[in-house]
Amino acid sequence: MKKIVVSENAPAPIGPYSQAVQAGPFLFCSGQVALDPKSGQVVSPDVKGQTEQVMKNIEAVLTAGGLKFENVVKTTIFLTSMGDFPIVNEIYGRFFPTNPPARSTVEVRGLPKNVQVEIEVLAYKA
């Protein structure tokens, strides 16, 4: 059985998808971009500010699902430029100081709202 997880502290979906879906012990989180949860607008023109907001949005969705960053087992990072990887990696690393999850990072042509970074996570509740 699946349960839809919603957080008012993360941006509302901008399409026909859920912020996250809980299925058994797993929480499948849709990719988060740098939208302000209140205004729905992109928070920053630079990748540093965008990545910080993405991680805040992920935290809000995880919290709504009763989980924390420690529960994340896999992430996927989408970047419009691999040149931004060092900045994104530094900010991302602050949220996973020990036992980081498995991860993939890919460069893409474009992302919603013309942001520079999107991150999706898969979490597990033991």
CATH superfamily: RutC-like
How many strands?
6
CATH architecture: 2-Layer Sandwich
- Considering DSSP H and I runs of 4 or more, what fraction of the residues is helical? 10-25%
Q: Note the total helix count.
A: 2
Report the order of strands and helices.
EEEHEHEE
What CATH calls the topology is 60s Ribosomal Protein L30, Chain: A
Query: Distance N terminus to C terminus?
Result: 17 Å
Descriptive overview:
This protein has one domain: 2-Layer Sandwich (60s Ribosomal Protein L30, Chain: A), CATH 3.30.1330. A hairpin with a 2-residue loop joins β2 and β3 (26-29). 23% of the residues lie in helices and 27% in strands. With 126 residues, the protein is of the alpha+beta class. It is globular. The mean pLDDT is 97. Strands 1-2-3-6-4-5 form a six-stranded mixed beta sheet, covered by helices on one side. The chain is built from two helices and six strands. It has helices at residues 47-64, 85-95, and strands at residues 2-5, 20-23, 26-29, 72-79, 102-107, 117-124.
